[in-house]
Design goal:
Length: 111
């Protein structure tokens, strides 16, 4: 008789525990927007297959080389002249700025 009562008590406790677990699973936890913004989720990195990457490397290199547009002689001449003009312009500009700073230092009696 005592064993039956103990078994019933144990079964009731187990049922109560299961119900509590079910209730806790059903409840949704509300999280504020600020908390959601502050939570940082780390993305899992996928493992790289180095053997496959080495096999695909020559194909990727060829694709990148095909993307390059090779310039003609006229186009290169034009670009070369433009680059030289910019270099001369900025050389003159910085030379003048240097002379201006030198004159300013002479006025202040620092130089």
């Amino acid at each position: 008789m005592a064993n039956k009562k103990q078994d019933q008590v144990i079964l009731e406790e187990n049922n109560i525990q299961k119900e509590n677990l079910d209730k806790s699973k059903k409840k949704k936890i509300k999280i504020s927007k600020e908390t959601k913004k502050s939570i940082k989720v780390k993305k899992q990195k996928e493992k790289k297959n180095f053997k496959l990457a080495i096999k695909e490397l020559p194909i990727k290199i060829v694709k990148e080389l095909n993307k390059i547009k090779w310039s003609g002689w006229d186009n290169l001449k034009k670009k070369y002249i433009i680059v030289l003009l910019f270099m001369v312009f900025f050389a003159i500009l910085f030379f003048c700025i240097g002379l201006g700073i030198e004159a300013l230092f002479r006025l202040i009696n620092v130089y």
